[in-house]
Input
Amino acid sequence: MSNGDVQRWWAENPMTYGATHGETRFEDGSYELGTREFFERLDRKFYGWNSPLHGERPFDRLFPYNRYGAGSQVLEIGCGLGTMAMNWARNGAAVTAVDLNPTSVGQTRQRFDLFGLKGDVRLMDGNRLEFPDDSFDYAYSWGVLHHSPNLQQSLTEMMRVLKPGGEFGLMLYSRRSILYGYLIKYLEGFLHYENRFLGPLALASRYSDGDREEGNPHTWPVTKDEVRSMLAPYCCNVDVRVLGTDLDSSLTMLLPGLGLVLPGWAKKPWARRFGWSLWFSGRKS
Output
């Protein structure tokens, strides 16, 4: 498995958050890729999925916007179609956004032009960042690096370009989640006999992002301890939060009928323990 395989698949199947992975059709109709209307529709869908993470601004319950405002050098590794980078640019940061695939880079540049934002958006491999050591005040990656065939190298590069004392944020899929343990490993792997033909990595790749598409080359969820170990040479304390924003859809399948009517207070303990996303944050020593 190479980064070239990952690059090609995601260039052909960008994360549009449409009704079908990689397409620009949503529940209310189709949108033209690269238009302002498309980006606004994509953002509404994405924000809606993650509504518990928003306060006055999108994702401000995770991102330290107040500490890294005007003039701060902020790096995003894996910018997708630019939603996160846009929010940091609106916060006044000097944003640099990189991605492995040209579709993401082109669309993020288009978004910044349409919305009148400043940012440096580059085609770049997260395993070989083309920046000097200690370049950025804050670095983050959202839902991207579990697609890297060499996660350790990706994290090493992120920490290399982060300044001493700078902070980082990192969202990766969790192998201790309901989505992985039940929907992928048990339902697809065991009940549907897919584990007779697919190994753990191939199974996770096939039934995670783009599960109605063919060919996702690499998606491998992590555990807290694995990532803590990878980050240990660079920081003393890593905070980990489990983000259970996927629980509504997961519980609907796990508990048919009951999953639709469970009140929020009953879902929270599940979300805090078995959510699909892990948020790692800390400060470089």
